[in-house]
Amino acid sequence: MAACHGSPVTKQRRFPTKFMFGAATSAYQIEGAWDVDGKGESIWDRMTHMSPGFIEDKSNGDIAADSYHNYKRDVQMLREMSLDTYRFSISWPRILPTGMPNDINPAGIAFYKNFINELLKYKITPMVTLYHWDLPQKLQELGGFANPLISDWFADYARIVFQNFGDRVKHFITFNEPRETCIVSNMFSSFNGSAGPEPFNKSTNIVNYLCAKHLAVANAKAYHIYDKEFRATQKGQCGITVSVDWYGAHTNSPEDKNAAELKRQGEWGIFANPIFSTDGGFPKELSDRIAKKSAQQGYTKSRLPEFTEEEKALVKGSADFLGVNHYTGFLVSATVNKLENHVPSLADDIDVGLIVPQEWPKSGADWLTLTPNSLYNILHQLKAKYNNPVFYITENGWPTTAEFNLNDDDRITYYRAALENVLDALDDGVNLKGYMAWSLMDNFEWLGGYTQRFGLYYIDFQDPARTRIPKKSAFVYKHIVNNRYLDHTYQPESMTMTIDPGH
Ligand code: PNW
């Protein structure tokens, strides 16, 4: 499919009154206080301390934005921008230092309660992610996501989260981005614990597909706990967030179209299909392809594990909504960039080439360009594939480099284009309920350290106070949220933030 959709920008369309506008962050990227008040060690604490060389600037999240101590200021920033929703994550080892439910850290529970209360005081809806990559190190030592028991460990943790916070939180997200947890971890050789160097598992790419299955079952167990034990009294929703880049065919040839479809199945269908498709299970073409490759490679069965019928039924339908993290897109070709060394991996299994046209504007991160209409295109594809479930955009944003620059016009261009796509999708009947910008503030960008900045607010990470300063994009976002339409020409009169009445 080619990126062809677009609307005249002069047409003044409005975002529905109830459409949720917010910003997103995650615990490890902002909280700091890595060993404070009884918090346990996470795989990111271990990895950044043991192998700082994996991080571009050899930094870590020990202090990060110090939101553990600055959370009231964070809430104030949301109010300054008139946002009604905040998506953040709970650090599993902060409330369960060993990962297990026998040892609950009361200071961790208290921190999140105070913070959630602060949000509710100003009528900001908390949207809480349970797992945003900071696995308790103790669980990694038991195999992490390669161990099928991860689904029980996660279910126990989820029950504790629902018990403690479900009276005030009505939007839960089990996992952030299974692809990054299971697959990207290996592509970049060190990431989220399913594979990669010490202290991660040193196993082959086989672990990636095991992780995909175990994570799907873990999500399902947590979802059914919410459904059976908490929904009646708490009356909330429990969903999952998948990262969905746009993959379009490079040409109209059947080969390129097939290649693009296989790429979509490998990058997000493998995680969304078992939950959101009517048949359940992994996507068909992808499963066939991996089975074929595995046979060629001399394995006795496919490296992609099967779901039992019982697991398939448990996983199917195990989400109230589909959270979508979207950043960028690629053109896919069946013919170029074929892999030469056939090491088992998703990339080798799919065996397609990616093309990024020169004219797509580049960002401060090598994987991210402004891809025309990519957000509209993916929502359109997901709606068709999964029968239009409830959607939230749970992340979308633009990175700049580390230089101090509050005039982030490129970020503004990106957000305006994305929100124009949101309006197009709403016009098309996509069941989209809200949009969260990534990110509320500059933070620890994983392997990029502090060299890539996604924030609406700037932070100087040398400044002990971690003072937050609004960028121009914060003013532009606020103007859109307050007025419920996209004014492509708006420029803030000053760079001084105030809180509007009612916030
Ligand atoms: C997401 N990719 O990660 C995460 O959910 C955030 O924690 C992160 O800060 C944000 O996006 C920006 O990177 C991704 O390579 C990391 O395609 C990498 C990719 C996509 C998403």
UniProtKB/TrEMBL annotation:
<dbReference type="InterPro" id="IPR033132">
    <property type="entry name" value="GH_1_N_CS"/>
</dbReference>
<dbReference type="GO" id="GO:0016052">
    <property type="term" value="P:carbohydrate catabolic process"/>
</dbReference>
<protein>
    <recommendedName>
        <fullName>Cytosolic beta-glucosidase</fullName>
        <ecNumber>3.2.1.21</ecNumber>
        <ecNumber>3.2.1.46</ecNumber>
    </recommendedName>
</protein>
<dbReference type="InterPro" id="IPR001360">
    <property type="entry name" value="Glyco_hydro_1"/>
</dbReference>
<dbReference type="GO" id="GO:0004336">
    <property type="term" value="F:galactosylceramidase activity"/>
</dbReference>
<keyword id="KW-0326">Glycosidase</keyword>
<keyword id="KW-0378">Hydrolase</keyword>
<dbReference type="Pfam" id="PF00232">
    <property type="entry name" value="Glyco_hydro_1"/>
</dbReference>
<comment type="similarity">
    <text>Belongs to the glycosyl hydrolase 1 family. Klotho subfamily.</text>
</comment>
<dbReference type="GO" id="GO:0008422">
    <property type="term" value="F:beta-glucosidase activity"/>
</dbReference>
<dbReference type="InterPro" id="IPR017853">
    <property type="entry name" value="GH"/>
</dbReference>
